[in-house]
Prior knowledge:
By secondary structure, the chain is an all-alpha fold. It is built from 18 helices and no strands.
Amino acid sequence: MAIAMISPKERKRILSVLFISLLLDLISFTFILPLFPKLLEFYRSLETASENSNSVLNRVFAYLNTYKNSFARPISDRYDIVLLGGALGSLFSFLQAIASPIIGRLSDKHGRRTALLWSMTGNILSVALWVAAVDFRTFLASRIVGGLSEGNVQLAMAIATDVSDESSRGSTMAMVGVCFSVAFTLGPALGAALSNVTTVSANPFATAAGFSLFLLIVETLFLYLYLPETLPRASQSSQNRNASTKSTAVQAIPPRVRTNNLLTLNFTHFVFLLIFSGMEFSLPFMTYDLFAYDSTQSGRLLGFIGLTASLLQGSFTRRSPPLRVVQTGVVSCAVSFFLLGRVQTQGMLYAAAALLAVTSATVVTGLTSLASFEAGIKERGGKLGNHRSWGQAGRAIGPVVFCTLYWWAGRSIAYTIGGTGMLGVCMLVFGGLRPPPGAERKATKATKGM
């Protein structure tokens, strides 16, 4: 194991570097989330003023209107921007599904640190394009570059796996989940605040984009200075094999014994995120229809989910075996779907939101942890990249499928079908997955080394 070559002190240092860098990265990434409506409205107004009906954005809206007109129930024009934001999100996830396996295999060949620094270069270019985006075409290019280059999360998971053993694997992966929860709580609020500061009249969002770029540059310098190579073969080469004990440790690695079929894990990841991401996208529609929620009330609901998930990540998810974590999350998700289909009061809505917070805190983290047990050192980046690719493919398809179902069949039927699908995921998890050897050890031992 890679962990056999790393002292507890060095492991703790690497995880600290990883936590700080990932937090910076995800805060930067989430800046844009609350800005999408105003940002896309800004580009739409520019296109309208230019009276160029053949522009990229006007063609996109023409396709969206054709899509809207296919529904049995009319969709208000107020949802045009929401649908466009969802389409951009699906595009980003689709590009991630293509890029993730490639980035993972490159990290297996050239080292995690090298792949991560190259990924950061692409991220910096993406946000630099956003800073300069005075038209929709440039903004679209920034999203495409970002989708193809973003590899920080999967590489962070590969690095965390490199420096953890079986007993601490779940708690280490939960650390990545904590970063997500904290970033999705703080990042959108900071991005919204910075969007009110105009420094470039041609791009009112340049201040938020510029600070996002600043965070990425700081993160890149921090990684360059403080992150060592954690891939054993790459780190051995860089140190000219001056430690024979390390060589012995690598040679002593036993053959990888598979506990769970990787295809089953990947398929579970795909189906879960296909259903779950569709629900995420439909939630603003539902809260507006039922309770006339505005952006502030929607933000409060999402903040409740993020804060609750963050607390669970640092407690239950970190201290529990990964299979139990996944099982808890998928059951909570299935119950929340059936509850959302019958919501009549805001109390019921927040009860469902609490269950969704449990899901957000558990399933993806637990599945990734299980997948990491099935990947040997020489294939870890590629296997985890493939696992992430399946999930991102689900995220790319889910919003389109669930939105179509929601507007054709109505809320109750859509969420009932989603809940039924999630029961199928529960069957996969409870019937098709097993706990890897070592993963069921008491997490108290694992968390002491964090």
